[in-house]
Amino acid sequence: MNITETRPFVSWELMNSFMIDAFKGYGVPEEDAKICADVLLESDRRGIESHGCNRFKPIYIDRIVKGTLLPVTNLEVIKETPTTVVMDAHDGMGMVASYHMMKKLIEKAKQYGMAGGAIRNSTHYGIAGYWTGMAEKEGLIGISGTNARPSIAPTFGVENMLGTNPLTFSIPTDEDFPFCLDCATSIVQRGKIEYYAREGKPTPQGMVISEDGEALTDSEEILKRLVDGTAALAPLGGIGEELAGYKGYGYATVVEILSAALSGGQFMKALTGVDGEGKPSMYHLGHFFFVVDPEAFMGLDEFKKIAGDIVRGLRASKKAPGEDRIFTAGEKEHEMWLFRKDKGVPVGEAVQKDILTVRDALNLPYKFDFEQ
User: Using CA atoms, how far apart are residues 171 and 181, in angstroms rounded to an integer?
Assistant: First the structure.
């Protein structure tokens, strides 16, 4: 995988310190701020820029300012058994709630072999792969999903009803990196369109449909129309049945059900972040998590060896003409980290502007190389 980068870098240490101080400046407790900063930076470590520093201000800081995200997370355990937990995040930081959920589930899974949990009344929890990765680092299988603002139209429909609803797995292998499948159940996620808009790029044709069934490509227009309900993302696979879009539609529905029904939370049109008068409101998202201990089956070492053999077999299979490599999920993200680990976070002009806006608003004593 050839990686080139022309944007300036900010060191991991500097960006981490800055975001922690910025979150603290907007009322997030220090330990919670550390969690939030690490989740965002993990996105950039993996090259998932749609969920990294790109979203620091518009998704988290701006929502705290608007009052649709509470900086202090009053996490409440609603129900708990030896192998399950249900929590209410009370509209606090979804990343903080998810961190504490995963810590509990990892402990339970190590004792009982499996554990599952759900959170209601939460907010954006970052990349789902961060939470499944917490399990994988402990030699466990992690599974997670979350509902989100309505964006996806059901097959044969044009109204945005379901969120981009990622269904994510992290699986330990005997290689230097896990198998990690972390992707939306839409053909493109809203965060990617936000990234296109911030970079002044069009959205590729065929990913978004208007209420009249027309393809849309203007990224700024798409974001506005997703909010007012006059556009929708196609489900994974594409529009209609010919490209099997019904499969993505089905998986998105599974995530919606598990995110809402396991936690007794809200769903679909109740998650718009806008009230009946069109004013900003709480999002009330739901998340679910499952952790499985391979040691409770045939043992971790055997599991990792077989998982490794499977992914190596896939990569060694016959390649299409003109293609040099076959990748397995998590491999590109690992190579991106190897490329970036000694360089830092690449920041484009839009992110630079966000960083300076937040810094100046809080009078934080930071100086960045890109200002020169």
Answer: 9
> Residue 362's pLDDT is what?
98
| Token duo for residue 36 | 């939030």
User: CB neighbours of 280 closer than 8 A, spacing ≥ 6?
Assistant: 66, 67, 68, 273, 274
Q: Helix 331-340 to helix 30-45 angle, to the nearest 10 degrees? A: 110
Looking at residue 2, its pLDDT comes to 83
- The alpha carbon of 190 is separated from its chain's Cα centroid by a whole number of angstroms, namely 11
The H or E element spanning position 176 is none
Query: For residue 18, what pLDDT is reported?
Result: 98
pLDDT of the residue at 62:
97
Q: What integer pLDDT is reported at residue 328 of this predicted model?
A: 98
The span from the CA of 274 to the CA of 254, in Å, is 24
Count of helices and strands (H, E) across the chain: 11, 11
Partners of 87 in the β-ladder: 77, 119
The one-letter amino acid code at 206 reads G
Residues (pLDDT < 50) of the chain are: none
State the pLDDT at residue 207. 86
What distances in angstroms separate CA 183 from CA 71, 164, 176, one per listed residue?
Answer: 27, 9, 21
- Compute the distance between CA of residue 205 and CA of residue 183 in angstroms, rounded to an integer: 20
